[in-house]
Amino acid sequence: MINHTIASIQEGFSRGSFSPQEILDDYRKRIGEVNKNLNAFLTLLDPPSDIGNWKMETGNSESPLWGIPAAIKDNILIEGTRTTAGSNILKNYISSYDATVIKKLRQAGATFLGKTNMDDAAMGNTTESSAFGPTKNPLDDKMIPGGSSGGSAAAVAANLAVFALGSDTGGSVRQPAAMCGIVGLKPTYGRVSRHGLIAMASSFDQIGPLTKTARDAATVLNVLCGHDIFDSTTVQKEVVDFTANLEKPIKGLRVGVPKEFFRAGLSAEVEEKIRATVKKLEGLGCIIKEISLPNFEYALATYYILVPSEVSANLSRFDGIRYGHSVKSDSLLETYIQSRSEGFGPEPKRRIMLGAYALSAGYYDAYYLKAQKVRALIKKDFDDAFERVDVIVGPTTPSTAFKIGEKIDDPLALYLEDIYTVPLNLAGLPGISIPCGNGAKSNMPVGFQIIANSFDEQTLLRVAHQLEQNLK
């Protein structure tokens, strides 16, 4: 069975062990064999007409991503292809332009295998809310793969793609990476352009890679990041080589372990693996410090006021008039109501209503404004912590992957699965999840989350890479 990383394919190309066409054919063949059961891909894309001449056409023959097959989450636009965002509201929508990250990957010479399944409009953390059926976890097809980038995570874990792109609003790259036993990186807010990403919550969303290794994540980030005139939130920072310092020893780095991460709700098997992995960091010469994030307990409630508020605004553009699903009715109002009623599933409707309520007259100050103030306090907690430590570590999720259908009727239980991931999105910080072994009871992967200060992905990836080598 094929089981490549970006690095191993680069090496194979240089040795002449295989050609880009052979690699592409291998992955397309495996998708044909496996995807019907997993439901990781929603749309398969045609390969370049002449991949043999493609190296010259891209103008970037030295790129480490040249000829590397990639999967793209179905809320990232690729010109001329169907982009559904996992929702009936966009089931027949054809993208009219490339997202900035797609332009960058094209220039780097990556090949696009297809668009991957996701929760409806990126709302969910199990990929069960997709209008096109759930994606299954490739390690156990009775289990969820996580979400909302579940299709992308499953594609990489099942060797249906070498790497994938996802979007992370409250953990939607890191959480499915943890549950599928791969690497998921959320860059700092503003590091990667959101132009061409179907917006969920604009002050939270960030595109990030899902890969087999931390080195591969660094390689993809090298291509993705940079200022974009089409996204005013991207920063004008020098683009560094994130692979350059991966081997630099981490001895002496200060590692913070928040005491708030180890409270009721964290499963025993996850806690055991996380504490053992912290010991590994100590063995690598890191200085372990217990720290406190006093407002951590308010992060989830804050997130589920602010994100639905932004959702209610962003999803108002799906009105059945300009594009997407449309129902012909006797009046304009009925067209709006029926198109949105049929187009959105239960979870987007729930969040639209929550957000509209939080923003309504008489409740704005009590909910939305107060949540913004708590968001600032959560950011300050991290700022204070990073004066004492270089990185912060802990669990990515409170439990390992659970059975499909097990929690689908309990939204609160599903929201609690995001408890360790949403604080980073509130603060705009970079985070990465790497696998640190399987739970003793479930025998499913446990994700170890590493958090760095804003725009310090170099340290983040360096720690992840060296810990990864030690865990292997």
Terminal CA distance: 20 Å
In this structure, how is the largest beta sheet organized?
11 strands, mixed
Give helix and strand order, one letter per element, not per position: HHEHEHEHEHEEHEHEHHHHEHHEEH
For the record, the CATH class of the domain at 6-224 is: Alpha Beta
CATH superfamily of the domain at 6-224: Amidase signature (AS) domain
Task: Give the radius of gyration.
Answer: 21 Å
How are the strands ordered across the major sheet? 1-3-2-4-6-5-10-11-9-7-8
Counted by DSSP, the helix tally is 15
Number of strands: 11
Gross CATH architecture of the domain at 6-224: Alpha-Beta Complex
Q: How is the CATH topology of the domain at 6-224 named? A: Amidase signature (AS) enzymes
Low-pLDDT residue intervals, each spanning 5 or more residues: 49-59
Sheet/helix structural class: alpha/beta
Q: Helical percent range?
A: 25-40%
Q: Would you tell me the overall average pLDDT? A: 94
**Outline:** globular
Strand content: 5-15%
Family: Belongs to the amidase family. GatA subfamily.
GO biological process, one term: translation
Domain Amidase: 22-461
Active site: 73, 148, 172
